[in-house]
Write a structure and sequence with these properties.
heterodimer; A: 397 residues; alpha+beta; 5-stranded mixed β-sheet; 20 strands; 26% helix; B: 333 residues; alpha/beta; 7-stranded mixed β-sheet; 36% helix; disordered N terminus
């Protein structure tokens, strides 16, 4: 039996709203299936199952706003007993004698001043007193129906004004309130600047060859198969990172955990303002066309407000590419718990020295912001050089 | 990342880990000797000291008469005189005969001499039930010793602790009682080549969860781990705290866990009334009351002399099914 919980889709996420069940009780689910849509400050996210089995029951109705970690559904895993009792060790002569159970001793009646007739745990009382919550309106889910900590925490979360604001009927599913998105970005970036000792490097890269190769390749193709420069950047970055594991991973609980694979996050601006940076999984093992297809798919879905939980939680590094209409360079901020972010300015035609001659070349300003707790500038410089080198042979990407 | 040095391990039993610890202590310090009933020619009632007589000779591996009051008292005297004795008591039930020496002498003399005498003795005792040794060889009286100020009480549950606690205990200038659960002697596992002394101050988090804290020690640790694995399959993730040191208790580790999970169940192979489980429960309520979401639960041994028949013995002791039931009651699901 597995419990399907409200996932954390980023360090700054505290709660989410269950928008829609996509699997109903009795449906078969397998690991990776999308079983629900959850709305967060970043938009509507499709949430995947991590277990294979049968969805046994929904524990919450659509529309519930609950903290991260709250159980949403039970999944009966394949092969497990249907019986909800946990299988026991060698059959004891008399299993689980009842007198062993602690709650046999009935706790004293709670103080009538708070809520007569209701059991309220000390932790719940403490939280309610601190946050001014009226316990008479709270439903208990603890032992014997007692009100426990998560119940008052839920009640408190529902008091948040933005959770109470009804959505206009015309607003499509997944539309994000700009203020909520702003708050999420503010929380993540404030944390980043507070916790992460950034260092920054910049490097001007001659991308004339890469762009010429790409243009020639695109000429013979229909628009939906054409490459964008960002795809070349993503693939070069992913390949370069294989030699620089200290830039690829996540920093948790005081230590860096390098990632086995590169899941490059791509910063994508949203039309209504704000941005997200979901992952393209296993970027290094995709062909250039597959990277492009993934990028196109991701951009379309993100702008429609539909992307998956794992895409938000998994990035191991981020690329922010300003594109043709952008400016020369960007000094990016790391998205925690990642430890590095690469910026690419708009490629611009510049007078450049090549073999002693001033020659017009397409120049792109690369920048790196990295976490000094994990890596040093010398390695960061080598990483930028490695990306540059990879871009000089676009046919090998 | 694994370093080459740390990856070398040996498959070893708990019994061998204790023997290795004794041998290591004997080699490190000529003041160390082992004394007890059948520790020499017979190799120890649980075969812990097998071979040590041949290795170290009868001066340092000393068989004693069946007189706990005599040889434990002699060990305490030797410690006062500057030796570092390891005294083996065959089972904690028999230690009632030397309780006078431990309580009235070993634990009290530093205090009564105004700090002039140290008693650096280590007393090893077998404890616990499960081997059909009936009501005079099967009890868990660790808490009787954990009640006494002036001594330290430890309960190694893992190979690392069986190997590592002895030397640290010998280095302690005050008496240390080490409880070895009889069901652990045959347990085998991997122990790093470089395993050596470990601390005897702190509890250890053997499993990390978030829904409740299972607090235990000694032979019950592995039953508790089994229960925690089964609970995880039902979506209940338990912290498992191994107390390691029963006196003084590591309140900080216990309370950190309980404040995080807000629920606690204590698993203790002793009788419930006046047990260590009772003491820990009281401390949790004293220190964590405002963090609790459920009454503190206890899984203890039935209050009766341990029965001889296998099925009755099993039924009397804490078993995974009872631990699971108590955990679910605390979790409310």
């Amino acid at each position: 039996m597995g419990v399907f919980r409200m996932p954390s889709l980023g360090a700054d996420m505290e709660a989410g709203t269950l928008v829609e069940w996509l699997k109903k009780p009795g449906d078969a689910v397998k690991s990776g299936d999308i079983i629900a849509v959850v709305e967060t400050q970043k938009g509507a996210i499709e949430i995947e199952a991590f277990e294979t089995g049968t969805l046994e029951s929904h524990l919450l109705p659509e529309g519930s706003t609950v903290p991260v970690g709250t159980a949403l559904a039970m999944i009966q895993t394949a092969g497990a007993a249907i019986d909800r009792e946990v299988p026991t060790a060698p059959p004891p002569a008399e299993p689980a004698p009842a007198p062993q159970l602690a709650p046999a001793a009935v706790p004293p009646a709670p103080a009538p001043a708070i809520s007569p007739g209701k059991k309220v745990s000390p932790a719940a009382r403490h939280f309610a007193a601190e946050h001014g919550i009226d316990l008479s309106s709270v439903v208990g889910t603890g032992p014997d129906g007692a009100i426990v900590y998560v119940d008052v925490e839920n009640a408190w979360l529902h008091r948040e004004p933005r959770a109470e604001t009804p959505k206009p009927a015309s607003q499509p599913k997944g539309a994000v309130e700009p203020t909520a998105m702003r708050a999420a970005i503010a929380a993540a970036m404030t944390r980043s600047k507070r916790e992460i000792p950034h260092y920054y490097l910049g490097h001007a890269v001659d991308v004339t060859g890469a762009i010429a190769w790409m243009s020639a390749r695109n000429e013979a193709r229909p628009p939906e198969e054409r490459l964008l420069f960002s795809a070349l950047l993503l693939k070069s970055l992913a390949l370069a990172l294989t030699k620089f594991p200290e830039f690829n991973g996540q920093f948790r609980d005081g230590r860096f955990e390098p990632a086995g694979q590169v899941h490059a996050g791509m910063a994508i601006a949203l039309r209504g303002g704000g941005l997200v940076a979901p992952a393209i999984h296993n970027t290094a093992s995709l062909t250039l066309d597959q990277v492009m297809a993934a990028l196109r798919d991701l951009t379309t879905r993100v702008r429609a407000g539909r992307f998956r939980g794992s895409e938000l939680a998994d990035p191991t590094i981020t690329l922010t590419s300003l594109g043709e209409r952008g400016v020369d360079w960007v000094q990016p901020i790391i998205y925690p718990p990642q430890v590095a972010i690469i910026g690419a300015g708009a490629p611009v035609l510049r007078p450049w020295m090549v073999d002693g001659q001033v020659t017009p070349r397409q120049i792109c300003q690369f920048t790196l912001a990295a976490d000094h707790r994990v890596s040093d500038g010398h390695r960061g410089a080598l990483l930028l050089r490695e990306i540059e080198a990879r871009l000089q042979s676009p046919e090998a990407l | 990342m694994q370093t080459a040095a740390a990856s070398q391990t040996n498959t070893i039993t708990y019994r061998e880990a204790v023997r290795t610890a004794i041998r290591d202590a004997m080699q490190r310090d000529p003041r160390v000797f082992l004394m007890g009933e059948d520790v020499g020619r017979y190799g120890g009632c649980y075969a812990v000291s097998k071979g040590l007589l041949d290795e170290f000779g009868p001066e340092r591996i000393r068989d004693t008469p069946l007189s706990e009051g005599g040889f434990v008292g002699a060990g305490i005297g030797a410690a006062m005189g500057g030796m570092r004795p390891i005294i083996e008591v065959m089972t904690v039930n028999f230690s009632m005969l030397c309780l006078d020496q431990i309580l009235n002498s070993a634990a009290a003399i530093r205090h009564m001499s105004g700090g002039q005498f140290s008693i650096p003795v280590v007393i090893r005792m077998a404890t616990g039930a499960g081997r059909q040794l009936a009501a005079q060889h099967s009890h868990s009286l660790e808490n009787w010793y954990a009640h006494i100020p002036g001594i330290r009480v430890v309960a190694p549950a893992t190979l690392e602790d069986a190997r590592g606690m002895l030397w640290t205990a010998l280095a302690d200038p005050d008496p240390v009682v080490i409880f070895e659960n009889v069901m652990l002697y045959n347990v085998s596992g991997e122990l790093a080549d470089g395993a050596g002394p470990v601390d005897i101050d702190r509890a250890a988090l053997r499993r990390k969860g978030r829904d409740l804290s299972l607090i235990t020690y000694g032979g019950s640790l592995w039953k508790t781990m089994e229960a925690a694995d089964a609970l995880a399959k039902n979506g209940i993730e338990a912290d498992v705290v191994d107390l390691r040191t029963l006196r003084p208790l590591d309140d900080a580790t216990i309370m950190e866990s309980v404040r995080r999970t807000r629920r606690a169940v204590i698993v203790d192979e002793a009788w419930r009334s006046g047990s260590l489980a009772a003491e820990i429960s009281a401390r949790i309520v004293e220190q964590c009351f405002w963090s609790l979401d459920a009454p503190v639960g206890r899984v203890c041994t039935a209050e009766m002399p341990i029965p001889y028949p296998k099925h009755l013995e099993d039924a009397a002791l804490p078993q995974p099914a009872a631990i699971i039931a108590a955990a679910r009651a605390a979790a409310g699901r």
